[in-house]
Design a protein that fits this description.
Mean pLDDT: 89
Strand content: 35-45%
Shape: elongated
Radius of gyration: 25 Å
Number of helices: 5
């Protein structure tokens, strides 16, 4: 007959502040000019649309600064399948303020495509956060064991499924301020 071990499984949490890179893409297209109130889109050239947008980016303090990377991405535009001529302008920055400024620049023929937030933990951060989450789990398990007049034995299982690098689409800042590092641990109950 197989002996079963009594166990307790808990999840420990360490909350940390998020730091990372905000990336936003804008579609600059003759297709979008039609949506902006022009009848056919032929009233403006792509160069005129891009020049007007570039001027607004300079005025907003985005273009011509060292506060982020601004680049054109023709391949992304080609993959969108629009019939009219256009391009994608992408902007990456570590500054939330600069990302917001970029998103607020409005211009004829320009439409937001996507926004992402990329964060990456170092191996040391992952080790430190896992240790902190482990201590939290151990405290929880000890308190529960004590309530049932039992004691914790050896560790049976440690599960850490946290990713070193995460890429999130962002539509709200609510979940891009802090994140939880979670570790689930099973202890033997004596």
């Amino acid at each position: 007959m197989e002996h079963t071990t009594d166990k307790i499984t808990v999840t420990g949490i360490h909350e940390y502040d998020l730091k990372g890179t905000y990336s936003t893409k804008m579609i600059v297209s003759l297709q979008n000019v039609i949506y902006d109130g022009y009848e056919t889109g032929s009233e403006l050239s792509l160069k005129e649309i891009k020049d007007a947008y570039a001027e607004k980016l300079v005025d907003a303090g985005i273009a011509g600064t060292q506060k982020g990377e601004l680049k054109e991405d023709l391949l992304s535009y080609s993959l969108l399948g629009y019939e009219k001529e256009g391009t994608v302008i992408s902007y990456a920055t570590d500054s939330l303020d600069m990302a917001q400024k970029f998103l607020m620049v409005k211009s004829n023929g320009v439409m937001k495509s996507e926004s992402t937030f990329t964060s990456e933990l170092t191996k040391k951060q992952m080790t430190d956060y896992a240790h902190s989450a482990f201590l939290d789990a151990q405290d929880k398990a000890s308190a529960l064991a004590e309530r049932t007049e039992r004691k914790l034995g050896r560790i049976l299982i440690i599960d850490d499924h946290n990713l070193q690098k995460t890429i999130d689409g962002f539509y709200s800042m609510d979940y891009l301020v802090t994140r939880e590092y979670r570790v689930t641990i099973s202890f033997e109950l004596l």
